[in-house]
Amino acid sequence: MTPEVFISQKGRQFAYFINQVLANSVAFSEVQLFAWDILEEWNRIDIDESCSVKPYERVFWHAFYVIQSTDEEMLDSDQSLQAELTECSLYLENKTDVAPANCVGVRP
User: Fold this and answer.
1) For residue 28, how many C-alpha atoms fall within 13 Å in the half-sphere facing its CB?
2) At what angle do helices 28-42 and 3-22 cross, to 10 degrees?
3) Cα(98)–Cα(20) distance, rounded to whole angstroms?
4) What is the per-residue pLDDT across 57-103, written as a single tens digit (0 to 9) for each?
5) ∠ CA(36), CA(37), CA(43), 5° rounding?
6) Rounded to two decimals, what is the model's pTM?
7) Is 14 within 8 Å of 63 (Cβ atoms)?
8) How far apart are CA 63 and CA 89, in angstroms?
9) Which of 3, 79, 89, 107 has its CA 20 to 30 A from that of 44?
10) Would you list the domain boundaries of the chain?
């Protein structure tokens, strides 16, 4: 599997989890477990570091790091954080063509 295919598949799934957490339909711990699963699977991919990273992947990793660096209380109370993750999710679901501003995610 290529990094592009992996990110494309996981991006939609990750967006689903983000939306569910923001709607309080899934426990925050579930999205964190999914993020750890992403990392574990990512480590199994043969990655060519010379390939450029596309905006979709940058948004994916940005959302990933946001989820990993926040806690449930902060996510529940910080409306700007919620808006940021919503923008990322919309882009990952291909519901908008423009990548959110200031998404600077990089590969782990």
Assistant:
1) 13
2) 170
3) 22
4) 999 999 999 999 999 999 999 999 999 999 999 999 999 999 998 88
5) 90
6) 0.93
7) yes
8) 8
9) 89
10) 3-92
